[in-house]
Amino acid sequence: MFRRKPQRLDSFPSSPYNATFLRPACPQLGHGDINEDCLYLNIYTPKASSTERFPVMLWIHGGSLKTGSAQSYATGSIIRNFISRGVIVVTIQYRLGMLGYFTTFTDDFPPNRGALDQVEAIKFVKDEIKNFGGNPFQITLFGQSAGSASVAAHLFSPLSQSLFQGAIMESGSVLTCFDGALGFQNTSVEWAQQLCNFTSNNWNALNYTELTNCLSNMPFSKWLPLDDNLLLGWQMVQDNYFLPDVPRNLASKRPNIPVMYGNCRDEWSYFDLSFLRDGLTKLSDYSKGFFELFFGTMASYLASREFDVVGMLEGVYTPFGTSDDDHLAWFKIQNDIFTSTGFTGFITREIDWHLLNGNKQVYAYEITYESQIGRFYELPGWTPVYHSCEIPFLWMMPNDWLTAGSKGKVTTDDFDIADWLGMTWTNFAKYGKPNLDQNLWPAMNYSTHTYLEIDKIKTVKQNYRNTDSTLWNKVLPPIIGNWPPERPDWDNGTIAFKDVFHNFINRAN
Question: Where does the source fall among the domains of life (predicted)?
């Protein structure tokens, strides 16, 4: 599983296949039913006739490329919010963590194996969905978080961009999970050192027999804890194959198909709320000094430019008169800054690449609806709309609804939002637009950046995340340069991976 690219399925067993239960998830912590034999997909269909061909929605789950599975979604909920509206839903699994993304940039451990698993799943659906009542020429990819980044990556990839006709990206762009966009992680180098004592000299010798022997015989229980500690998760890399260049150089080669991007208003607060829930931080920790320390840790790639960037971010996102130890205020400021840094700055950049390429079928949204469905931590004084806010509604997650219901906190508005999301997402798959009345949700253009605010009342607005876009895509680039850069900066003396990477990249040049 570590070393191989996915193998195409060219033949099928002659005996019937038992598809009445969900297969194990790919190895990850916190999930009981896991197995390295995990590359399965599930197909949910309306009652198919011999002639009818339904639109197809292929879901790529999120989880920082280290967690998640197709087991997370209840069959009854899928039927209620998708299948009943006349579409086919396909949920897929792909290798995660080290199994999917550890690389030597050689055939020993090829890059982006998890993404290549997704490519094979999409190809399978393209080839075989007609046998399940689906239209192979009406396939929409959709995903959330790292799944959204993966969907976006397929738009950039020459291997898969011609295999589907629409894409929905929820809370992520390719840059969200692209190595270099937030600094180079060098996770493969670090994990090889920790797990196999594979040193810098070993990397530069370009001989991976020792590493192969070490990892091939290692139970995944040894490396899963390392994966679990990655706050930003694993990253996709430039590989001369799936992603043959950095995204900005591939952007103009994307097909001009219908695309929809969106975000939850307070994306980053999910992570800080998780820290509070798990006892890693207290609300009283949040202050100007805490933010600057945390940002410095997260954005060390800025190096000498960090001081200027922090000053500019604080100047833009800090309300006038905020004291340095106003804990709730700094919790919100930290959310605004990291939401723009890791989510909406990237999303707006990717949207602009579409618009500059002449795509007139770009739709955007922001969810501002506040609910108790799926809420895992109560923060006094503020109700953030955090990362994954749409998942309990779109997928009608039973545990989230039961938990809120047991507390008497489910409202009719919650059901309305769930129904509206199901209708709108399936409309996009059917018609290439989220609403048949363009006045209710117009496509975006470069001058107005029109988007839909999703709350109890849906409102068409302009200038989608304008502050984030202006700051990260216009003001800061002259200060920090283009991220990701064309090539890694390996000259800081900390990593001896330079020759390996350059060897790999230059092979096709």
Answer: Eukaryota
